[in-house]
Amino acid sequence: MPGKFDLKTAADGQIMFNLKAANGEIILTSELYTRKESALNGIESVRKNGATAASFERKTSAKGDCFFVLKASNGQTIGKSGMYASEASMEKGIASVMTNAVGSAVADLTQKA
To answer: 23 pLDDT exceeds 80?
Structure first.
């Protein structure tokens, strides 16, 4: 079973998406968008940039947890991961995005209450 993009409305009414792995785990969360069309463009950007290792910026939080940010070719942030306890786990998360970004379908949940 491939991963999927869940497109949904955030609590403040803006649109966002999560990329989920085949096991249902969220591996990337988008920025917030004011328009659905912009969020769909963001998904296309994940598909394009998520296949390139150089598009991932590896970071460490103030608490010492690892996370990554996916950047577009223009340097703009497309999305970021959750926190990982180790660099090895973070690298597995990046690999999962690279595997799932290209072929995953979009589930449009914006119409649901």
So the answer is: yes
Chain centre to alpha carbon of residue 108:
15
Per the DSSP assignment, residues forming a β-bridge with 59 are 67
Residue 84 pairs in a beta bridge with 66
Residue 38 three-state SS: helix
Query: Which residues have CB under 8 Å from 27's CB, separation 6+?
Result: 3, 19, 20, 21, 81, 93, 96, 97, 100
pLDDT tens profile 2-21: 799 999 999 899 999 999 99
Q: Please name which of 33, 10, 22 lies closest in space to residue 95, comparing C-alpha atoms.
A: 22
Total-model pTM: 0.91
For the chain, which domains are there? 4-107 (2.30.29.80)
**What's 2's DSSP letter?**
-
Supply 104's token pair. 């995953």
CB 35 within 8 A of CB 7: no
Give the mean pLDDT of 29-50.
95
